[in-house]
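Cont'd.
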Amino acid sequence: MDGKSFYIYTFGCQMNAYDAERIARFLRGRGWSAAPSAEAADLVVVNTCSVRAKAEQKAWSLLGRLEPLKRGRPERLLAVGGCVAEQEGGRILERAPHVDLVFGPRAVERLPELVEKRLRERKPLVAVGTDEESPPEAEALPGEGPAGVSRYVTIMQGCDNFCAYCVVPHVRGRERSRPPDRILAEIQAYVAEGAREVVLLGQNVNSYGAKEGWGPFPRLLAAVNEIEGLRRIRFTTSHPKDLTDELATAFGRLEKLCPHIHLPVQSGSDRVLAAMNRRYSRRHYLDKVARLRDSLPGIAVTTDLIVGFPGETEEDFEATLRLLAEVRFDGVFAFMYSDRPNVAAAGLAPKVPPPEKRRRLQVLLRMQEEITAAIHRALVGTRQEVLVEGPGRPLRSLEGKEGVSRWTGRTPGNKIVHFETGGPRGKIPRPGDVVVVRITQAHAHSLSGLLDES
Ligand code: SAH
Ligand code: SF4
Ligand code: F3S
């Protein structure tokens, strides 16, 4: 296999990004190397997402665009992974006959083997398929991966919640947690490579280890908190129904745990929440937020929202707007409902017409923009601890200013900060440093400031 190269496209959530890193590590372990582009690669991997119709369309259109590449060099292999691969299986070969290999998220560890098999057997291969008990985890410890200040670590796979709109449990299978010793070893290895922050990933981290007896999640957090050299811990996502008091109070207790929680609410209407099978009420959600803010005043709270769920009325939508006003989220990710294969909501009626979904999305985003802007403005003049991630974009206004450089990082509350150093004799930060930045300006999606050298 020596001398062969690969190129990976990845879509979707952080779990897919993490899987893409693992794919790269497994391939490197078998002698493959990274190619600078798909054109230059012997193996092109497309790691797909299926969470909304648009995400799936992106995968199909990329596969279409890759067809000439395959035709131009038929011995080049095209492999499709991720959630569309799991959902469609062999149907991908019918619609895109130039694809050589289809593999689901549970076949990531076997990819190098599958590629070798495909090369030997010279016919398309499909490796999807689900829920055999979790296979023993293949080792993919870091080594030659992309070194970064902040790293993702998947702590559990799959989901058991079956929210009525969601394809994830159908494509990622049942919830399975990774053993704590593996997780801790992986984080230690990243820290040895220079990482200072980890983002623990799961569809519902609050039920980490529940089946395996490795929970509760705050216990894992406490163990991660002990890792020397690690500065910051984040996690995503928490399901509001399972957010325990122990987790809420962990924010005040564990010094490395960042003061930010992503807590998807989806809707502010009890009727819609019930139809979504979210298993909490608006009141319950507001109580959880209050509990978090008691434990750690000023904690940043972000959320996900869906507009135009089947049967959502104007009144339901207004309840969501009122929830936004009441909670004052630091940021929201809002989506128009889209039907997905096999999900319960696909059979629900009436559907909200697309122009109305678009209108609701715009109204909601406009309202949130003002809230985020006000929260950002309130930070102007404050000093923030920023974990430096890397150099920022050079600014024209800085040209000719000797020694001034521009950097990018995040505050503990997860706000992106672009900042400048002071001048010729100023300190030059390095990625991985935690520095103090005086915030001078607020923007819609970020802040800017000056390195504080006092
Ligand atoms: N496990 C996470 C979310 C994973 S999916 C959780 O429970 O919060 C990320 C987001 O995509 C969801 O929070 C939801 O807001 C959105 N989403 C999922 N399915 C969708 C669909 N069919 N249409 C529109 N948005 C959807
Ligand atoms: Fe989807 Fe709900 Fe599971 Fe999140 S908790 S992945 S929204 S089914
Ligand atoms: Fe998409 Fe699969 Fe993640 S559907 S959001 S890539 S779990």
